[in-house]
Amino acid sequence: MSVKTDPKIQRKILIVDHDFQKKFIFQFWAFVACGTVLSGFIIYLMCGRSMTTVFQDSRLKIMSTADFILPSFLLSSLVVVLVVGTATAFFALFVSHRIAGPAYRMVQDLSKFTSGDLRQDFHLRTKDELKSLAQGLSDMGKKIRADVAVLKNEVDHLDKIEKGLPPQAVERLRSMKKILGQYRV
User: Fold this and answer.
1) Which among 6, 113, 157, 176 could bridge 120 via Cys, Cβ 3.0 to 4.6 Å?
2) Torsion-angle region of residue 130: left (phi > 0), alpha (psi -120 to 50) or beta?
3) pTM reported for the whole predicted model
4) What is the mean pLDDT of residues 31-43?
């Protein structure tokens, strides 16, 4: 069982794990919004003690610099949060897809593996994350498959000499054969 990286394998859907990906995207977007609010607050505090003169509506006005730039800053911050937040959301969607997609794929493969199909390989795309986890699962599957094959050979050997075994041993042999028969190696 080896990890196969196949660039031709393409997932058809972008959102694989809705809850994980929504949370991931929201955290990235919240980070952008918090950064914008924090930078605005710092600029507002830094401008608080200075005064600005401006001609507005044909009148000369004198006001604090912080109050003068506040409306423009709020508007520009809103635009930045929307534009950069949207770009960040798309970026987070693609990054989370590279994490959630392989995890989803491995959960499907593990489901087949736990149902008894020990031949199950773990396939990941070349750019997917979690390749080391998939390699570990592949190594574990290879070891389990080898151990089950040895056990099946031993049971088959005992089955051939069943006539010379005590009744309790024959009963246990049938039980082991039934359990090992559930696995495909």
Assistant:
1) 113
2) left
3) 0.58
4) 89
